Amino acid sequence: MLADESQLAALVDLFKTGTRQVFSKGEFIVRPGSPPPGVFYIESGIVKAYDITKYGEENLLILRKDGELLGLTWALAERESEIIYTTVTPTTVWLIPKDKFTAHLHNHPEAAVPLVTLLADMFRLHGERIMTLEYRTVRERLASFLLGIADRFGEKTDKGMLLGVPLRHQDIASSISATRETTSRTIAELDRKGILKTEQSRITICDVAALQDFIE
After folding, report:
1. CB 62 within 8 A of CB 115
2. How far apart are CA 90 and CA 166, in angstroms?
3. pLDDT value at residue 115
4. In angstroms, rounded to a whole number, what is the distance separating the alpha carbons of residues 214 and 172?
5. Banded pLDDT at 63 (limits 50, 70, 90)
6. Is the CB of residue 61 less than 8 Å from the CB of residue 82?
7. What are phi and psi of 39, to 5 degrees?
8. How far apart (Å, rounded) are the C-alpha atoms in residues 211 and 194?
9. Where in the chain is the domain with CATH 1.10.10.10?
10. The pTM is what?
11. 5-131, which class in CATH?
12. How many C-beta neighbours within 10 Å does residue 139 have?
């Protein structure tokens, strides 16, 4: 990691000079058609970033978690974004206005170091999503997607690796460029084989090696 703990802590302290906001599950942080009001630091919770396709369907782009930022690329690139942010779990964020954020960077160039670290991680995650879409079959793309979620949100249990974020089949389908029906059938197939265990919107990977075999 490029940034050290003190540099990351200084970035968090900057955001804590802003406004603390608390959201319930399912609330908008940034509504459709609205640019972010500033840059957000996620103190706790999970946030879904998505857009709306020309067919009126949600297209999951990425899930953000505690310690990550929302609206960063918008603030730095100075372009409006069509990305919508909705909470997946109860979430607490800190918001600072874009002008205050960019002024701090100009006055304190060293603050760019932790931002480079965060941007590099964002780039890596988006790169992994592109690689997932390169797999030919839905089963391969599903396996790659679930392993990526497990890497970021996985919780080890006696039944396997619980994905610590609720996932709708439609969200998974949009992220792997498949229909909801095909995605649901593939999940059900892996469930029957004992590779996955699904309970409502929670998924447990019972056999991580079997999922990895699909993409290796």
Report:
1. no
2. 12
3. 85
4. 17
5. very high
6. no
7. -110, 135
8. 11
9. 137-215
10. 0.88
11. mainly beta
12. 19
Closest CA to 122 of 179, 192, 42, 181: 42
CATH ID of 137-215, from 1.10.10.10, 1.10.3720.10, 1.10.1760.20, 1.10.287.70: 1.10.10.10
Beta bridge pairs of residue 78: none
C-alpha 121/C-alpha 85 separation (Å) is 19
- Under a CB-based contact definition with an 8 Å cutoff, are residues 102 and 114 in contact? no
Element (H, E) at 54: none
Query: Helices 138-153 and 112-133: crossing angle, nearest 10°?
Result: 150
pLDDT at 129: 86
Contact predicate 104/147, CB 8 Å: no
Distance of alpha carbon 128 from alpha carbon 190, whole angstroms: 22
Give the model's pLDDT for residue 152: 93
Distance of CA 4 to the CA centre of its chain: 23
* pLDDT, tens only, 2-50: 667 888 888 899 999 999 999 999 999 999 888 888 999 999 999 999 9
Instruction: Classify 99 as helix, strand or coil.
Output: helix
Task: Name the amino acid, one letter, at 127.
Answer: G
Q: Calculate the CA 112 to chain-centre distance.
A: 22
For residues 165 and 115, give the distance between their C-alpha atoms in angstroms, rounded to a whole number.
25
Token readout for 211 is: 């999922």
Ranges in the chain annotated CATH 2.60.120.10: 5-131
